């Protein structure tokens, strides 16, 4: 199978996982950076090979079981490679995604399994996305940061799958220290220009545009931290 087809399976899977509604070819054209006609031709080929189903009326694209199997395999290899590149080779948090995207296609099943064992069957990639097959699920109460109201405290859970594909966004988040595990308070939401003001644990204010906030999935901290004794 060609790398391109594998990347399409991965893209459809990620777009579905981010819960932005049904996947259409415009989304894929956008994501893959190619013309709509190219997407159309590729999707037709994938349909013939039994990797996707296209609804004849709505034109929504869905992976078949075979297509999803390929996407899951790639997602697993991708995330394991990211962990290895960051934790063991010392590449930066915002660099590992692009590198892993190249390497994921050449890994064999044997190497994938050995790598998983070597890394101790990690739960998530460095950007917080759950590694399929390692027995973990994403916390069900997490949602994009732009949907949280002012006054709430949150913890960063993950960068959306689509967010991971934007090198500039990852670089920006890394520079601002906005990585999984970090606690923030939503201070203000400005409707006129759709920015959101956050306060981190060091009491620094950070302003994010709506698009950036939308790529950060957070879970709300329900209770106040217990007072120190
Ligand atoms: Zn990829
Ligand atoms: Zn990642």
Write the layout of secondary structure elements.
Elements: H1 3-17, H2 25-32, H3 36-48, E1 52-54, E2 61-63, H4 65-87, H5 96-103, H6 109-118, E3 143-144, E4 153-159, H7 167-175, E5 183-190, E6 195-200, E7 205-209, H8 210-215, E8 216-220
Antiparallel strand pairs: 1-2, 3-8, 4-5, 4-8, 5-6, 6-7
Bound molecules: zinc ion (ZN) (2 copies).
The site of one zinc ion has 5 residues, from helix 1.
Quickly count the domains: 3
C-alpha Rg, in Å? Answer: 19 Å
Looking at CATH, which topology of the largest domain would you report?
Answer: SH3 type barrels
CATH class of the largest domain: Mainly Beta
Provide mean pLDDT, rounded. 91
Largest sheet: 6 strands, antiparallel
Number of H- or I-type helical stretches: 8
Strand arrangement across the biggest beta sheet: 3-8-4-5-6-7
Low-confidence stretches are none
Gross geometry: globular
Small ligands present? zinc ion
